[in-house]
Here is the input.
Amino acid sequence: MSFKKFATIALAVSATLSSFSAHALHSYTELSKVKGTEKQLILRNNVIGAIKRGHTYKVDVNNKDLVEYYKTHFYSMKLVTGESKYRILDDPQFYKGQQDFAGQTCAVLFRYGNELTESSTAGFGASSNSNDQEQTPLYATGSQYYKDPLETEWPRGKKRENAKNLYKFFLYPGKKFDKTSIFFGLHQSGVVSRKHHSNDLVLTMNHQSYYINYKDQQKPLVDGDPALYSFLIVPSLGTIVKQANEQAAYDLCHDNVEAIVPHR
Here is the structure.
């Protein structure tokens, strides 16, 4: 065998091996392995059951099944303005904000999976003051989202100018809950259904709502300013990291996120 041919084969083998040398992606805790109180385990089982039965719905104000579920799920919501909770639950921006949040979260996961530099905010293409690599979101102690929440606000920019309501969406910092808690921000579904794969990701999303008062100040809209939670499901981490870039990862989850409806 000639040296040239040997070198060509060696390079091919090296390239093949290098494709397997990329860092292994983290496996978040499957829902079936979530632990907690009796109430938390009931909630976990309801989420699992909803995924199995296909009770997941596109996040859209025009999706009547989802809107009606939210109106039941947030039955005790009281607004400081004295208005009906429908000011939030019938607001298209409430749903667009959830789509944006799913997209932003997946942009973070894309950066982690492709060993890119962390960003100062969740969104794709955001400016960064760091040269640090994006660590396993929420899980790694070196992750920026281990100590701080992964959060976004909606509307942003010019879209905020005429907005009736403002929303903050977030995953709690990784250190706040044990990795096996239902309230930890990211889980692997572990459920096979006609709509979803077992390795799809489940986000325990929290949200708070605000309004702008006559002094142009941002004030809590819901009495007590609670962080209300719901569950979203997005494509798997493996699928997210295979996208062409952060924008594509954002679009994948923005366009495909569904809300999990445990009770229907």
Observations:
- The first helix runs from residue 3 to 19.
- Residues 2-21 have pLDDT under 50 and may be disordered.
- The longest strand covers residues 201-212.
